[in-house]
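Weekly sync notes, structure subgroup
Attendees: PM, AL, DS (notes)

Item 1: joint prediction request from the bench team. They want all two components modeled as one assembly rather than separately. Inputs as received:
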Amino acid sequence: MNPVLKLLLEGGSLSTAQMAQVLNLTEGEINGHLEQLKKDHIFLGWRPVLNLSQEDAGAVRAVIEVRITPERGGGFNRFAERISRFDEVESCYLMSGGYDLLVFVTGTSLQRVAAFVSERLSTIDGVLSTSTHFMLRSYKEQGYLMDAPAEENGRLTVTP
Amino acid sequence: MDPNRFVARHIVTLPKSGIRDFFEIVAKMKDVISLGIGEPDFTTPWHIREAAIYALEKGKTHYTSNLGLIELRRAICSYVGRHYGMAYQPESEVLVTVGVSEAIDIALRALVNPGDKVMFHQPCYVSYHPSVTLTHGCGVPVPTQAADNFALTTAALAAAWEPGCKLLLLNLPCNPTGGTCNREQLEQIARFCIEKDILVISDEIYSELTFEGGHISIASLPGMQERTIFLHGFSKAFAMTGWRIGYACGPAPLIDAMMKVHQYSMMCASIISQEGAIEALLRGEDAMKRMRDQYHRRRDFVVRRFNEIGLACHLPRGSFYAFPCVGGTGLGEREFAFGLLDKERVAMVPGTAFGEGGKGFVRASFATSYEQLVEACVRIERYVNSLKSRA
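Output from the run, pasted for the record:
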């Protein structure tokens, strides 16, 4: 794996300058790596991980199980891409099991999310059925615990 | 009434830990970046903690067999067999202890007659020589040198050996130097021990944290399993320092002798820690490898920076310690360490806390975050440059 990528995954919130120090590269080289990773469509971008329940009380999230008819020569890909392009769709995954696509949707209200499913998603030709589940509470997002008390790092300052 | 007169003579003369006075000063200061911490900055992986919580929920709160839970001993034998190549019998050749610290203590108490000589390489972990003293034995230090990357050489062993040397305390990879031995060097040490009929107590607590070349246990070499007590634990590789859990593997008569001491002094290791240890051995290797990879990268960074700054530092092949030499600054190790602490609020432990062989060196633990390491190196560089401009 690209060393810059490894450091991004494990290095917390290092600045480019700090990453350059750790990897013994110049900042220009670090940026070059990042640019190449973007060009190769490996590094797609940054998003902050937020505790939305406190910041944006109006955000409603839902998980939708979608069953679709696969196409000859394309499988599920065309549908998945079409669905994914909607702004409301945060994530979209092809799944094994009792349904085909798992779609994560965000909206400003329950009605808006429901309307998106019934008016935009279900109406796509090829969509056989949808099953919508509204998220009530998040406990963990992208590796971050939401409301659990912070773990203490109570190490003594000098130990043998 | 003076309570002091009740203190045993050998305790009166036993020196306190060389780290103690340094710790007392650092503990009072704010905003210190400490590179003096001898334990992982990672918290024990959650699945291990969860296994211990589950054990508590299931009501596991009682004594276990003195030797430790048989499930744990079986898991230890399987792990040791796979990773080190030694085959031990879980029923009779494994003893679960309260950390490797207890294992060292009871091994010495079981094996050392008053006056017996115990060799140990130096610089070394703070407890080795005191532990020998506590058993009324005589410590025989064997120097290791930066020129050899602090590997233990048979030349040094032979020079230090004297009649009456019964045991060799080995710690590879070594705290504080990060030094270790390759196969050829270990084979030479093994031949020396067989020739001189020395028993080895091998503390391999940092063995998983070996970055190049792989780790070889001396117990795996021909003729050595029968004369080695293999000590290992969970503190460093699985970030379980506070759990106080380790183990000894060795010939049944030696384990039995250690068990005699253990059963009277400890009874058994904590059952909850034993349950966590089982989980670590069965399912903890992925997390352990992730932590090791991080230490590896941090090591490369700090050693490079120390050498750039002008503190000559060998590349430690194992552990999470770098051992740079401060001689080039014109200061002794204590003066350097205390000056760095005072001027730049970075703590590194003076090498003499680990024996006279640490003279001129400081120990830097890289068991801390990248951000702290980067900032620490900036401050150390500023301090070293200030010394140069003064000179």
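Discussion: The two ends of chain B are 54 Å apart (CA to CA).
Action: AL to compare against the crosslinking data before next sync.
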